[in-house]
Amino acid sequence: MKIDVFPALELPAEVAAAWSAVQAGEPRLDSPFLSPQWAQAVARARGPTNGARVAVQSDAAGRPSGFLAVRKRGSTAMPVGAPMSDYQALVARDGFRADPRAMLRALGVSRYDFCHMLADDPAFQGCARGRDVSWVVEVADGYAAYEAERKAAGVGALKDIDKKRRKVEREVGPTRFTALSDSRADYDQLIAWKRAQLAATGQTDLFKSAWVMRLMDELLETRDPAFGGGLYTLHLGDELAAVHFHLRGGATIHGWLIAHDPKFERYSPGLLLFQDILKSLDDGPYKRLDLGAGDYRFKRELSNRQQGVMFGFLGAPSVSTLARTAVYGLREVAEALPLGPVSALPGKAMRRLDVLRGLS
Predict the structure, then answer these.
(1) What is the separation, in whole angstroms, between the first and last Cα of the chain?
(2) The whole model's pTM is what?
(3) Fold match flag (2-132+313-359 vs 140-286)
């Protein structure tokens, strides 16, 4: 068993090509967050001490067949790009049994913490400490077929969005949709709205980290259909009402950062924009819109497929592994107690600390 470790920015072109080929051959791995381009974009944004490493396991014939991208910090590792990464996986060729423990040894770390690992990833079964669902909209047969399928399923969300569109056009003005906008002003407004939203809900301001802004700025400028950002905007009359910044790659657009002008709240401009994006996919290479995790009504109603994700860790015997085990044990005990919101406090604190670890 041969395992090589490369700094993300020194990944040989032939290894990156093999990684991309594995992704292309596995529909469940079709996410821009699982691509070599993502790992390299994060490494560039973080700078010379980025810690981004890729463990590559080869098969018996010497072909690169398993790929694990991490950010190494001392004896522990996190997903590359966390907390901005909405999916993680050990990207492996179909039928190849990669060994994540051997990869961690090659990386020189004793523990790997993950937060959105694909739940069907065979390499990490048994390592989960909790599970969630990501919601996916498949439009491979076009928007009209998707709309008919939602109607047949008894879901009235798209009909409701149509009603709101007619209402806002009567009361405010015509809607104007722009796909892959290059407007810096609209991009800056998205960041301002998101920061205000995070402050209002007491969440960590992700955008205070310089590397996050460098990453997003690079993605905004990247127009390659195979990988990059995508700025989508909705104007009501002459006013900007909603902005989405998504990550594009393969056949997928991944819903990432969304915000809207609060004064248009009653018209649900974010949903209007989602509908416009879905309609626009008829004319391009993308066949799905991944809405990500989070139990929101609009995600449940728009989605027609689910992708399980899990959080947890994989560790070898060590002090850091024992510490993580103890913290999860405390969290699980608290969540099992009938203490209402108090039961959730250890989990919230743990997630907040992991976000801060990732941003630092």
Answers:
(1) 34
(2) 0.94
(3) yes
